[in-house]
Amino acid sequence: MIQSILDAISLGGLYALAALGLGLVFGVMRLVNFAHGELITIAAYMLVVTVNLPLIISLLLTVLVTAAVAFLMELTIYRRLRGVNPAIMLIASFGLSTVLQRVYELIFGALPKSAVVAPFLNGAFKFAGLSITISSVITIVLTVVILLAMGYLVEKTSLGLQLRAAAADFRTARLLGVRSNRLISAAFVLSGVLATCVAFILVVENPEVNPYYGVNITILALVGIVIGGISSLRGAALGGFVVGVILSALNTLLGNGRVYAYSWLFLLVLIILLVRPGGFLSKGSELERV
Amino acid sequence: MEQKTFHADEISKSFGALQVLDNVSLAIKPGEIVGLLGPNGAGKSTFINILAGYERQDGGTVTIDGVPLDGRKPSDRAKLGIARTFQSGRLFGNLTVAENVALGALGLGNSRKVAEDRADEVLEILGIDKLSRFPAGSISHGNARLVGLARAVAAHPKYLIMDEPAAGLNEDEAPRLLHALEQVRKNIGCGMLLVEHNVKLVTEACDRVIVLATGILIFDGLPADALTNPEVKTAYLGSSGAH
């Protein structure tokens, strides 16, 4: 039971991080960046191919490469499309996602690449007579640390204040002198850093990395930011957490019926949206949907 | 031309065949409050959008303390000392009042600490410092107008353009705005352009009034004289006079 609760919290935290990465970019660009999944994928590949380096070096390299891909994504594609119809941006992000999957296939091959990243996180320990997996505890600790760091950045720094303002009303933020290029680039780089954190937690538990590795969690994180409140960073993190917890609980409760976990999840999401169309943390008028 | 002046000289603007502004000139000195009156469609919004850099004029020049502003973006003009408030308020409802005001100072490149200190200072000047920790989305309309004013003032303006700050205010709230404008003049000393439909507020707050009608400047003088000017009465107030 305790292990199930820890699993639910750790999965919730993981999805909260993924949703926060998506929410940051949505906040400043009103862009649902489907290619966020490919940031998670490249981070996972980097962790696998640099597995023989000391972990800290491997992590630093992974953060650098993933943040650079995120930065270039914005600079070369989305910046040129800024101001076009949101539907075109959405399709562009789909296209970019597909192109990157093909590129990864060319570079790393279609078959999964595998390596044991941070082997000290595998295994279990005894607590009050119960067997607890190390990875679930570390995931929770890591998630809490990252969310606290993000919370500090968003609440206490100039960049964070501008990000929150831009997430609520980008046009007015610009009119007040917020530098849009710098802010959007920062949001993409931060989303790349968060994608690295997500990839690290994922790879520890599932080291079979393929070109579609980040797609599944990205779709579920998108569900999270929609039910959390699409214009709120707190809502995005909360929504992601709720999706992770519900999915984990469904997997536990459904037993052999867990193949239907996604069906139940999306049914619950529909009910939540019928009750709170703007998400948990909406302010009533935030009914924007993509 | 005076050096310490916000100056608009013979501004003209057309939208297609429609002449919206026809050689409109204006000068505001530091510490002076100038009212801009005019009926709907007179060209007031276009004029202040040109002053703040949101629209380009077809003819004429805008200068601040002798520095030409033509072709400069609103953010550049803000750095040179032009701030504006918005008719719709445009507060960030998810941020606190203090954070909304601090954003005005952050836009100039100040650090978060400096911006927060500036926000505290301005909120105190305007007498709304008790609201600083409240979410901006939770405060009354009257207070929201004052917060919008505070955010503009936080940007250290030399000249402040206010777009209908009294819109939607009731009889109790309008005097608070008047008091706030006096506090801004006393403590900040910036020149102010007040675009407003509330004639009573304009006459009480302003040192001078200009009146636009169909894009033409028909009056520039003392507020009391505007109310008795036959041309103004006909064009703006109606033949029955001010209310």
Bin the strand percentage of chain A: under 5%
Overall 3D shape of chain B:
globular
What about the largest sheet of chain B? 6 strands, mixed
Q: What is the general shape of chain A?
A: globular
Largest interface: A-B, 21 and 23 residues
Going across the major beta sheet of chain A, what is the strand order?
1-2
How many alpha or pi helices of chain A?
A: 11
Short description:
The complex is a heterodimer of chains A (290) and B (243). Chain A has helices at 2-29, 36-49, 55-81, 86-108, 134-156, 158-168, 170-175, 180-205, 215-228, 233-254, 261-275; strands at 124-127, 130-133. Chain A has 290 residues and is an all-alpha fold.
Tell me about this structure:
- The complex is a heterodimer of chains A (290) and B (243).
- Chain A is mainly α.
- Helix content of chain A is 72%, strand content 3%.
- Chain A has helices spanning 2-29, 36-49, 55-81, 86-108, 134-156, 158-168, 170-175, 180-205, 215-228, 233-254, 261-275; strands at residues 124-127, 130-133.
- In chain A, helix 1 (2-29) packs across helix 6 (158-168), helix 5 runs antiparallel to helix 8 (180-205) and helix 10 crosses helix 11.
- The radius of gyration of chain A is 19 Å and the shape is globular.
- The relative contact order of chain A is 0.20.
- Chain B is of the alpha/beta class.
- Chain B folds into 2 domains: 1-81 and 157-243, Rossmann fold (3-Layer(aba) Sandwich), CATH 3.40.50; 90-155.
- In chain B, the strands form 2 sheets. Chain B has a 6-stranded mixed β-sheet, with helices on both faces.
- In chain B, helix 3 packs parallel to helix 5 (141-153).
- The longest helix of chain B is centred in the C-terminal third of the chain and has 15 residues, at 173-187.
- Chains A and B meet through helix 6 and helix 7 of A and helix 2 and helix 3 of B.
Topology (elements, then pairings):
The complex is a heterodimer of chains A (290) and B (243).
Chain A: H1 2-29, H2 36-49, H3 55-81, H4 86-108, E1 124-127, E2 130-133, H5 134-156, H6 158-168, H7 170-175, H8 180-205, H9 215-228, H10 233-254, H11 261-275
Antiparallel strand pairs in A: 1-2
Chain B: E1 6-15, E2 18-28, E3 33-37, H1 44-52, E4 59-64, E5 67-68, H2 74-80, E6 82-84, H3 97-106, H4 112-125, H5 141-153, E7 159-163, H6 173-187, E8 191-195, H7 199-205, E9 208-213, E10 216-221, H8 223-228, H9 230-237
Parallel strand pairs in B: 3-8, 3-9, 6-7, 7-8
Antiparallel strand pairs in B: 1-2, 1-4, 4-5, 9-10
